[in-house]
Amino acid sequence: MSESDKNTALIKNLTLFFGGFLLFTDVFFLAMGIIYDMPIIRYVIYGKLVINTTNIYLILKKHYLISTVIIYTVILGFMITGVVCMGIQPAFQLYAVGMPACVSYFGYLHKRVLKKELSMPIIIAIHVACYIGVYVYARFHDPIYVVPRSAIDIHIVFNSVATFGIVILFMFLFHNVAINSEEKLERMALVDNLTGLYNRHYLLAVLDKLKTESTESTENRWIALLDIDDFKKVNDVYGHNCGDYILHDIAVLAQKTCNDCTICRWGGEEFIILSSRKNYSTEILETLRKKIADEQFRFEGNEIKITVTVGVSYYDENLTNDVWISKADEKLYLGKSNGKNQVVV
Predict the structure, then answer these.
(1) What amino acid positions are annotated as catalytic residues?
(2) CA distances (Å), 49 to each of 31, 53, 154, 179, in order?
């Protein structure tokens, strides 16, 4: 499933969740209105039930922006109704505090998937105005209904749990977005998109870390520079899509054959293979060379023979990373000059 499809499914599921949540609160507040004899609450809930049921239909028809407006309006409207009927003690005003997290995340999803969003500054301003407004109203007006302390306590618990639930849910969602975004950026920065191998930035970081390891652990470690022979001819004869196919398949072969090594795409048709432990035999490179030479690469009905040349240089703590790689490149050049399709150590 693509990232866009995941976000679309998330919009639908979250909007449905809120639609269902509002229906659940309707049942609760309707019961409270009946038990504690609050006719206005009951009549408002009857209207909310019709609106929220219609809203579920709109969600299923993928009218997400309209549905979101209805959700915000219904929540704020009932918050005001609750304060007018019961005062500020039952904590209806908390919904105005909890909703900005919801508004922010829905805005993010709408922008990503629908390419449009409701104006977040305006919506936040409306929530703040409603929050302040109900306090101002309560300062100069008594609630319409006088209910027992037990009713107030029940409403405090329900409204608090609902509000904190909303905030925690969207904090969790934002946390996941932040983590996933960082991981995606890290993959983009360190992984070659075509081959799925690490890129030169990752390798250079590994080489820098290698400098800090003990002499014993780096004994006979080597670095190999692998270059596809006559790769330009492949691109010229069969096209760049074929070239990409060859690069990808060679990367797969290298990963399967040298699975204990660090492998990266160095650039163009060049790959670097770094031994992962001391005294690791370079015979694995000869095995890889033979596998590539014996492989039957097929692209759009064409069978293509590919060979590679590999230059190897052993680790020397006195060499910089650039010089170490250059020495492998010198061995590679020597192999190219002597007929290609070989490993030069």
Answers:
(1) 269
(2) 13, 6, 21, 38
